Amino acid sequence: MNTSMVKSKFLSHPEDIGVVAVGFSGGQGKAGVDAAPSALIESGLLTQLRDELNYKLHGDDKVNAYNDLVPKDDPPFRNMKNPGTVSAVTQRLSEQVYSHAKEGRMVLTLGGDHSIAIGTIAGSAKAIRERLGREIAVIWVDAHADINTPETSDSGNIHGMPVAFVSGLAKEEKPEYFGWLKPEHMLNVSKLVYIGLRDVDAGEKRILRENGIRAFSMFDIDRYGIGRVVEMALAHIGNDTPIHLSFDVDALDPMWAPSTGTPVRGGLTLREGDFICESVHLTGNLVAVDLVEVNPSLAADREAEAAETIRAGCSLVRCALGESLL
Ligand SMILES: NC(=[NH2+])NCCC[C@H](N)C(=O)O
Ligand SMILES: [Mn+2]
Ligand SMILES: [Mn+2]
């Protein structure tokens, strides 16, 4: 790590990153998001972390496809699409994230669609509980709240439900349908904060309200500016809490990140996204980062727009890991 970088105080090996590349698209219906990790890696992300930011990287450079986990038959269950597949993949992913996090490393997960956060958050939460006896906080940067329960979801896509499962708002006993999630995997919703929301379903608004969940929408960003919003978000989770940052690239305006499955206009500039990541880095509390929903095959002008989106994603990750601070 460079001398100007902030070492995370909750990591015993702050210079080490466990990388998990998740080539998975089963939480939604559009092919291509599974190709994001290799596109990000090919564009040089891991080399930059190694050579420019001086991290030591652990874990396979190869992308996990999890094909061995896909059940032969995966019918909808409680309105969820591909429930058995998403459950099995996120369970395996939770073990991968856990095994890095329990070593005291930073964990970087490259998605994949946002359903994978069921696995990443479950793995971080469990490891941090065991290592430090603490609960993690989650900063969820997204156009969407992804807190539908199977019953409130219109689409049945599990990438719109991860927060509900990992916080216990959506419950299921069957082990093959997320019943593997145990109390040690869970996120306390009082330690959850959203930034960037602008497309929240009616049922999700009710869930946010009823559970008193702290959320900063694009309205708040226009009103207070990104600086104040990040300050308030960090104040909400407190200065002494390990942070898991889950960044959906669709939080950025489609101008900066056009290649994504559910783009919503009126989003963050790339600079605002980078600022969020830099600010989280500066807390010294970061323990895990997810970057999700980059889909290189979705774009009007494929090559150019996909390259833009990949570049934006790389920038966000580097900022979260300490780049660009003087
Ligand atoms: N991770 C995402 N891009 N999620 C989009 C979710 C969209 C919508 N709210 C749904 O539940 O289907
Ligand atoms: Mn989203
Ligand atoms: Mn999302």
TrEMBL record:
<dbReference type="InterPro" id="IPR014033">
    <property type="entry name" value="Arginase"/>
</dbReference>
<dbReference type="GO" id="GO:0005634">
    <property type="term" value="C:nucleus"/>
</dbReference>
<keyword id="KW-0464">Manganese</keyword>
<dbReference type="GO" id="GO:0004053">
    <property type="term" value="F:arginase activity"/>
</dbReference>
<dbReference type="InterPro" id="IPR020855">
    <property type="entry name" value="Ureohydrolase_Mn_BS"/>
</dbReference>
<dbReference type="Pfam" id="PF00491">
    <property type="entry name" value="Arginase"/>
</dbReference>
<dbReference type="GO" id="GO:0000050">
    <property type="term" value="P:urea cycle"/>
</dbReference>
<comment type="similarity">
    <text>Belongs to the arginase family.</text>
</comment>
<dbReference type="GO" id="GO:0006525">
    <property type="term" value="P:arginine metabolic process"/>
</dbReference>
<keyword id="KW-0378">Hydrolase</keyword>
<dbReference type="InterPro" id="IPR023696">
    <property type="entry name" value="Ureohydrolase_dom_sf"/>
</dbReference>
<dbReference type="GO" id="GO:0030145">
    <property type="term" value="F:manganese ion binding"/>
</dbReference>
<protein>
    <recommendedName>
        <fullName>Arginase</fullName>
        <ecNumber>3.5.3.1</ecNumber>
    </recommendedName>
</protein>
<keyword id="KW-0479">Metal-binding</keyword>
<keyword id="KW-0056">Arginine metabolism</keyword>
<comment type="pathway">
    <text>Nitrogen metabolism; urea cycle; L-ornithine and urea from L-arginine: step 1/1.</text>
</comment>
<dbReference type="GO" id="GO:0005829">
    <property type="term" value="C:cytosol"/>
</dbReference>
<dbReference type="InterPro" id="IPR006035">
    <property type="entry name" value="Ureohydrolase"/>
</dbReference>
